[in-house]
Amino acid sequence: MKRIGSGIFFSALFLLSCADKEPLWDEAFTLESFAGENKIGLEKLFQIHGKQVVIINFSAPACKPCLDEMPTVKKLSTGSTPFLFIPAVSSLEFTATTDSVPTQDRVWAREEGHQFATRHGILPHSLWAPPESIRGLKITGFPETIIFYRSHGRWILHRKYVGILDENRLTRDVKILNPVHAGNTTDRR
Asked: What's the whole-number mean pLDDT along residues 70-77?
């Protein structure tokens, strides 16, 4: 009987240790200003802007689909929305492979990212995504858009999209989070 009891205990302990644990997204990554002096995470963005929903769109300077979506990115980053939209220029460039694991082609210099953001009119609103942030968020291709929302003092990943930004899909997602999160500046604890 003692062996059965200890077997059950260790099986339960094993299952608990294997359970999916939601990462602390506000600690998982930071973005940076192009000047390099400010590291900004989700919590800092919330403190500055007070938005419960943060949408981050990752692009890379040589990415053709990223260039195609720039008018939408510019519109969302400069317009009045119930969410905070951040264009993040990636420091890494990937090429899709047949085994669904992207290979890294090159690392972009911060200055190249700055030029890309300036050329497309998103500079005042965009941030630099250093390699450790791209890896920490498990970005698999560009463009990629991630929607986070704040609940009970924690940031939760709502959805990730790889591909050209669809403004209608984003609107539907924000409506799902509304009225509890979208545009609400008070944290529901």
From this structure: 94
